[in-house]
Amino acid sequence: MAKLKDQALETKGEVKGRVKGGSKVFGFVAGAAQLALAAYAGSDLVKRPESQINGPKALWAGALAINWVGPTAYLLLGRKETFDQVKGFVDGLQKRA
User: Fold this and answer.
1) What is the pLDDT of residue 5?
2) Rounded distance between C-alpha atoms, residue 21 and residue 72, angstroms
3) What's residue 11's pLDDT?
4) What is the largest CA-CA distance in the chain?
């Protein structure tokens, strides 16, 4: 009986627990992009001297494990040169307002 119900739902595309092809591809691409971003940020963190980083390296290394947020925060706020560029951009926007 359950098999017939699954077959009926499958024809409607409503079987629970199954992911459609497009969703699988999107999940794979998003996951790959997240890993690439974390790898790039991690590589930058390892190569960059501590004097060029805002805060301790260990803190940023832990933050890199937080999906998209950690690597993005490090790349925008953790590196002193990038932080200065972002701060200058924000200050420029505030002057225009």
Assistant:
1) 58
2) 29
3) 57
4) 69
* Separation between Cα atoms, residue 53 and residue 76, nearest integer Å: 11
Query: Residue 46 has which token pair?
Result: 């390892």
The Cβ of residue 44 has, within 10 Å, a number of other Cβ atoms equal to 19
Place of tokens 């077959």: 7
- Contact criterion met (CB below 8 Å) for 74 and 68: no
Residues 38 and 69 sit within 8 Å (Cβ to Cβ): no
pLDDT at residue number 15? 55
DSSP character string of 52-86: GBSS-HHHHHHHTTSTTHHHHHIIIIIBHHHHHHH
The whole-number pLDDT of residue 41 equals 97
Whole-prediction pTM value? 0.66
Q: Which residue has the tokens 């190569």?
A: 47
What parts of the chain have a pLDDT lower than 50?
Answer: none
